[in-house]
Amino acid sequence: MNFMLTIDGQPVSTGAMLDVINPADETIVAKCPQGNREIVDAAVAAARRAFPQWSAAPDAERVAKLLEIADLIQNHSKELAELITLEQGKPQSGPGANQELKGAAAWTRATASLTLPEQIIQDDAAGKILVRRKPVGVVGSITPWNWPLLIAVWHIMPALRVGCTVVIKPSPFTPLSTLRLIELMSKVLPPGVINAVTGGPEVGAHLTTHPNVDKIVFTGSITTGKQIMRGGAATLKRMTLELGGNDAGIILPGTRIEPLLEKLFWSCFVNAGQTCAALKRLYVHADQYEEVVRNFADYCATIPVGNGMDPKHLIGPLTNRMQFEKVAGYVEDAQARGARIVLGGRKPPGPGFFYPLTIIADATHDMLVVTEEQFGPALPIVKYTTVDEAIAYANALEVGLGGSVWGNDPQVAAELAGRLECGTAWVNQHGALHPLAPFGGVKCSGIGVEFGVDGLKEYTTAQVISIAR
Ligand code: NAD
User: N or C: which end of the chain has fewer CB within 10 A?
Assistant: First the structure.
């Protein structure tokens, strides 16, 4: 298959090509054109030209286009899901690539259903005050490699819904599914409404500092998020930053653990742990510690790990060597500081970036695997003695995307969950998202929210019309 950039409704190539590597066997999946600054300029110019007409289109027309795109995603889901497994690694089975496609279609439909009606603040003899929401303009979207297609949809659909035009730059590790999605979308949208470029930090930085881009929506690391914010400051760009986290899960004393094991597993290890709102450190009471560690490790040992194209595998490789080395390094650091590796911890022989499901007992807050975002299938389990101590541990880091409390009484757990410093606090689950519930982080996990009416507003500016009578 031939992969092309999309600019002004046209497929575009460049002289240079980028190799996309299959993380399961380290072979080249495909090549795609490598973007550059000039390509970004052309894409932004096309988006700028398309903006007046698209933003002035009747609301019903944009809703109809989004629903048409949702059908396109659904009709091409097999092809797109295969591309995701090949470039990113998550399996076809389980909550993997096919699930990502289902989410992409569902989020597109849910976004189509949202409206931002005019608000009347005052309407009396003295005057009338209206608040209207206007599209912010040209949106630059920068996406990561972990859920490449779903995050692209999260960025693009609300922008299009309100009348913005978009230039998207996927991660150079996983550009293929996005390039194909944009190619499909460009067949139903007016030229320039959606454009796709490729490239790494330099191309991304050019987009985030571009004078003709009005807003940046970014999902990725905190370090890059801060650079993007600095870059956008010169032109005072609007920003939505989703910067991941290091979510804590607290199991309350005396919790019956057996019925929760499957949910706990996917909360930690969906997409081999490469999920912004995955449970990344688990806190267990001292009285129950050994029982939970043993039961959870035994459960994890039953999960088949391997090439995601084989339907029997539920966990695939890490997406790239950088991530593999990071996870391996954090586990080594934990071991050197006295942690017990109860399961995994050693790379299996053979090609691919496979890291085994790893359970790290006796983990403490002086280990990198606890204090940094490991973004991989290695879970540290920390012992606590009082619930207050567990909450203090959970809130001790500079991040706050999600958190969870697990217990026999959901009411009690929900009250404690409210004390977590995070954007979403779950009870007896972790990472469950809803397209109408605002999702975002507090502290260094980001700025702004995605999804629902609150997410939609982030692609608009408020205009007040104030009429004297
Ligand atoms: P990253 O933040 O470096 O890259 C994300 C995106 O930003 C990519 O498209 C990249 O090309 C682009 N980019 C990089 N530097 C840029 C710059 N200066 N200006 C503009 N765009 C730029 O993330 P990564 O290297 O893909 O992963 C690093 C770490 O980030 C991971 O180890 C993981 O901990 C974390 N991460 C978090 C999420 C999340 O959903 N929160 C997703 C992926 C990675």
Answer: C
- Let me know whether 107 and 150 are in one domain: yes
pLDDT at residue 78 in the model: 98
Same domain, 270 and 234: no
Interval between CA 221 and ligand 1 midpoint (Å): 5
To test the pocket of ligand 1, the residue of 34, 142, 246 to mutate (highest count of ligand atoms within 8 Å of its CB) is 142
pLDDT of amino acid 211: 98
Please choose, from the candidates 150, 133, 139, the residue with its C-alpha nearest in 3D space to the C-alpha of residue 193: 139
The CATH number assigned to the domain holding 343 equals 3.40.309.10
pLDDT number for residue 203:
98
For 1, the token pair is 């298959």
Element (H, E) at 149: helix 148-162
Helices (H), strands (E): how many in the chain? 15, 22
Q: Which residues contact 460 (CB under 8 A, 6 or more apart)?
A: 116, 133, 134, 135, 136, 162
Which of 171, 228, 321, 372 to mutate for ligand 1's pocket (most ligand atoms within 8 Å of CB)?
171
Return the exposure string of 173-193: e unless at least 16 CB atoms fall within 10 Å of the residue's CB, then b.
bbbbbbbbbbbbbbeebeebb
Is 436 within a domain? no
Hey, how many other C-beta atoms are within 10 angstroms of the C-beta on 60? 8
Per-residue model confidence (pLDDT) at position 1: 84
Please check whether residue 152 is in contact with residue 218, taking contact to mean a CB–CB distance below 8 angstroms. Answer: no
68 and 161 in a common domain? yes
Identify whether the C-beta of residue 35 lies closer than 8 Å to the C-beta of residue 7. Answer: no
Q: Mark the ranges of the chain whose per-residue pLDDT is less than 50.
A: none
Full residue range of the structural domain in which residue 369 is found: 247-427
Q: Pick left, alpha or beta for residue 376 (phi over 0 → left; psi -120 to 50 → alpha; otherwise beta).
A: beta
- Residue 198 within a domain: yes
Single pTM value for the model? 0.98
Q: pLDDT value at position 346? A: 93
